[in-house]
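Render this sequence as a predicted structure.
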Amino acid sequence: MNGSVPHQLIVAAAQAAGPCRPGLEAAWHGRVRELALNLYLDGTQLAADIARVEGAKDRVRGVLTRVEIEESSNRAFIYIKALGRGEERFRTDRLENDSGKALYATAQRLVGRLVRVYKEMETTKAQAGERPSKVRMAVHLVDLGPADGAVAEKDAKDMMVEAVAGDTERAVAAWRAAGLPDSGPIAQEKLEAALAAVTAGDTVNDGAQE
């Protein structure tokens, strides 16, 4: 660990603890120690969470329609109506974990909103005689606004590129064919129609993964 980190944590903890009252030095030092350790643990977890989001290259944008809890696994299931596609389902971490609990609370708050889901694929443990399978895991949720609102230009263009498997020339052609504006927010219904046109015939395999 960088030698300056403990010092920085102690300074931050001392500021959070406030002035030390005369005669209470021992209690004050104990409080500063507790706060410094908590800050260290929080920082370590935050660094891990940031690394996980950075590693989640796949993103899905759509309307968060509902959230359910699967009691057998103690996980939440987040349902997204992906723009231009059908409904997709994502698992959270287990709800006894802080990450799962926090994401579940966020998902509940964003029901009915347009969101961006940062996802990763997790390999499940196979039962005897079965092959391991992969499931969609939600890592982070970002609120993009009302479900019937406009979609930011960058998000809309990213979705079009994703819809054509990264073929930027085809994405540009599809964008122009749909009559979408070159810049500015895109009306959600127009974007969804454009995405549906380029993904016609595609199917989203969700249940087979879980």
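Summary. The two ends are 40 Å apart (CA to CA). The mean pLDDT is 82.
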